[in-house]
Amino acid sequence: MIATEDTFAARRYFDSNFRSTRIHIEILPTEDCHSAPEHVLERLDQYRKQYQLGDDDELWLMLDTDHWTEPAHVANFTRVCQEAAQKHCQLAHSNPCFDLWLLLHVQDIGASQFKNFKCVEAQLKVAVGRYNKRRGLAYPLTRETILAAISRAEKLDTAPAERWPQRTGSHVYRIVKKLL
Q1: Which of 9, 46, 62, 90: CA 20 to 30 A from 31?
Q2: Cα–Cα distance, 31 to 34 (Å, whole number)
Q3: Per residue in 123-173, pLDDT tens?
Q4: Is residue 164 a contact partner of residue 91, using CB atoms and an 8 Å limit?
């Protein structure tokens, strides 16, 4: 189970690339404009209460850092991450946004600093021709591009013990490696 503050991109990505008879992936997107970290974790908690989960089920909290790690919000973001970890939820955050994970499929970004979603979106449009958060990438993802994204994300993850990437990066690779 993956709870995300995103409404479209994450669901489209996982639905399009990870169909399996062995593994069921349930995306819990934001559909009610309640995308604050505590609301996303609450959706995961509700799912856990509603369904009887087995030992092999995993709960993932997937958030963007963008403005949540700014001084006015970082204490709340930190608290939610700590609470999720205490509840045995895995964390797969992206800095600044999930769309950076998509960019890693098509381009090595090195130590680039992307300030926000708009910067990542602009680079995605340059790299693939067009990008729309609702429609996803206009670029076919393959096993090779997914493996390249994992490799690029791991290279950017210079502090893997951190709960979220402190610099540009994405921990979504952690979910994807398990799915592969």
Answers
A1: 90
A2: 7
A3: 999 988 888 787 777 677 899 999 999 999 999 999 999 999 999 999 999
A4: yes
How far, in Å, CA of 7 to CA of 28, rounded?
Answer: 9
Contacts of 21 (CB under 8 A, 6+ apart): none
104, HSE (Cβ side, Cα atoms, 13 Å)? 31
Distance of alpha carbon 150 from alpha carbon 170, whole angstroms? 9
Question: Which of 137, 79, 77, 149 shows the shortest CA–CA distance to 108?
Answer: 149
Strands 60-62 and 90-91: parallel
DSSP code of residue 3: E
Helices (H), the chain: 9-17, 37-50, 74-86, 98-103, 117-128, 143-156, 172-179
Token pair listed for 127:
């790299």
Residues 6+ apart with CB under 8 A from 86: none
